[in-house]
Records
---
Amino acid sequence: MDRIAWQNPKRERSRAVTARTKSKRTSFQANQEEFKLRCAWLYYVEGMTQEQVAHNLGISRLKVLRLLAATRDEGTVQVIINSQAQSFLALQRALEKHLGLYEAVVVPASDQGEATIASVVGYAAARFLSDQVSDGLSVGIGWGGSLQACMRALTWREAEGLTVVSLLGGLTRASAYNPSSVAWRLADFYQSELYQITAPVFVPDEGLAEALWAQEDFRQLRERARSVDIALLSVGDVSTQASIFRRGILQPEDGKSLRDAGAVGDVLCHFVDQTGVVIDHPVNRRVMAIDPTVLRQVPKVVIASGGVRKVQAIRAGLLATGARMLITDVAAANALLELPPVERTRS
């Protein structure tokens, strides 16, 4: 007799059911995989919202969340940060650690021309400042090419009780490069109250500067500068290319004398050495501007400056003011990393 006739019918039926079950399970798993892929494709590639994906697939938003999480966990979907963005992030983090900053913003510059650097750094500063604008905010403002560019890129926000404090005096002649013009433009843009040092940024002699600072209005303005919420400023170097000499605010012989005395840059028209100390020099004794060390009491001090030429001045400016935020360009950021690190006291 044929052997097959002697096999147990129940066992054969059981094997058949098992085979069909396995087939269904395999089919179900395949469908689930396809379903997850469709979900991921719609969300990550076609840019649908989770609600739109749920509607398209006829499932709940919670189910969409679970499917998307599964694709990431299984490695079907991998999140990759753009290599250029990743390098910028790494540079910013390195700069924060090296200079003891809370935040560094590094922007690309297509070339190292002064106007280009000022434009891109100024734009980044404008984005930062525009985001900070709120009711009752008080802003201390400096000057420089980056801040002039910043004023051209501000975003309007409604804010009541906004106050702008100019941190330095101006020029006796009208000029687009007047140090006090940046504060005026900021106040005009946001239609806010403005406090200014109504005196030339450099007066003829030390005695006149002392007499002016003794005036009640100037004393009050100095105190007001100490209590601003944000101080935004730029720095300058002491080369012959620096705006303060090119614009005739100071003479070339002043620059040489300052360099000989150890100055590496100016912060609010106060000339500082590489450690951020305001040097003992006649020019510093006749300046009508807030001493940068006063800003150490300000909660948020931001320096917006770029260019390799200014790296010594930037580092000195951070030390002089206690600034914990820096907005600069890539080339300057890399050059700053080659300088000695900045040691900060915990605060």
Note: The CA atoms of residues 303 and 326 lie 5 Å apart.
---
Amino acid sequence: MVTRYEVKLLHRRQVAEHTMEFTLEKPGGFEYRAGQFGDLVLPAGSGLDESHAKHGFSFVSAPFEDTLRMATRMRESSAFKQAAARLPEGSRVALLALWGSFTLHKNTRTPALFLTGGIGITPVRSIICQALHEDSGHEISLIYSNRSPEQAAYHAELQQLSREHPRFHYLPVFTASQGHVSAQTLREHGGDIARSICYLSGPMGMVKDMRALLVEAGADEDHIRTEEFEGY
């Protein structure tokens, strides 16, 4: 069921090079599962017509947190993103929710491997933070690829979480200096891939390439779950 919420844009901030995070107030009683997403609808004053004023975003915030956060890679060619960047803090926006089944599996005896790059980190950050907050017991590995540390959203936070939680293993890969993620990278740093539920998120082309790498590294194709982003 789709529900419309009228919420306030509290603030926005740059969380990585060319990546903007938007913080919204959380409506009373609003519940969602980590990894799900909603549509952000800009007001009429944004200058966009109705057909261009809506865009879907995963929640980067975790359900236990007090606000809702969404993040996106900014592009000059996107009228929606440019309008969102100009929207004054305190403006009222609409949120249409709730969709998505890209959520953490229940069986804590089965490891989780997250493989993503760039803006694909948004639902992953939500899932991992919620699991660690709940002390769920899952063994979680994250391999996160970006061209440089400056382009890696939430990199410092993920490093800190990996230091604080022995069950969370984080490998950042910076392709400008280290090269691209390979099947060998996955075999060495992805935990028990053959047993793991593997999660891929990001633009369609990246998800397709990463799926092939996972299979090459020994993942069970039936255990690969994906969330493909549109508009990138």
Note: Residues 121-134 form the longest helix (14 residues).
---
Amino acid sequence: MSVIAPPPTTVAAPAPPRPRRVAPRAAGLAVSVLLLAAVALLSITVGAKQLPLADVWQGLLHRDAAEYAVVHRMRLPRTLLGLLAGAALGVAGAVMQALTRNPLADPGLLGINAGAAAAVATAAALVGVGTVGGQVWFAMLGAAVVTAAVYLVGGGRGATPARLALAGAALNATLYSYVSAVMLLDAASLERLRFWTVGSLASADIDTVGTVAPFLAAGLLVALAAARPLNALALGDDAARALGARPALVRGMVIVAVTLLCGAATAACGPIVFVGLLVPHLVRALTGPDLRWLLPYCAVLAPVLLLGADVLGRVLSRPGELQVGMVTAVLGGPLFLWLVLRRPVARP
């Protein structure tokens, strides 16, 4: 009797490993850094006064070059301040949206920039403060007070996106009306602050950059340290505690970070809108809601937007220039409307 051999056992080929999302995100971040470097180089090269690229390069590298003063005293500090302020506004907007779970949270729309501006205007009118070193302390105080006020008026721990937006809009309108009144009633304050209130990088110098850089660096570090626990907090306080996060500490860290970032950036550049609102939404389409990736992307791409707007303002109105706050306001509105119409605004 013949024995029928069993059919050969077929061993299924192992499934190919799923591509990890880390590599594409890291590659995208590297491309973003290269884009930022290109825009920074463009900011140094392009100005209200046209200079050949060779002359700019000579002025950047050689102290005895005729263009050294233009490059090192005007364009280079302006570019560095744009890098720092853009990163600060982008990261501040991202952590605020994550904390409040409000896709409209933004240092401008929630009144935080207006609080810093009101404090600086008060200091300029009553004390005569006109330097960035003096303004930065008042700006951070104003930003901290308004951050706490919006959070409390919006309902504290039970705040809803609608209540936070309404509280921020009310405080924003009130504080900017106050700033306008101070400037109209005090001619000296008007002279000191008329370009600053629009949002400008034009008055940047190396002392301004050195004054605000430590505050902005500290704010960025605090925000990055809060990224992982903020991810847990998005699941709710109970789930966050189960994952080892401390909700009260996380909220405190975010408030400190936003105060440092918005206060220092506003003291140096004035209130600039739409950067902190628009960039996190654009970045979230690339990274998803994970703040460990969202914040580094915002820190790189928000300066791209700010410096790009600044270069555009210099080119459009030669031999004068449009202030960067005006350009971001004009560009930001249509861009955000396009983003909303293209797809629903992603919730943080």
Note: The two ends are 73 Å apart (CA to CA).
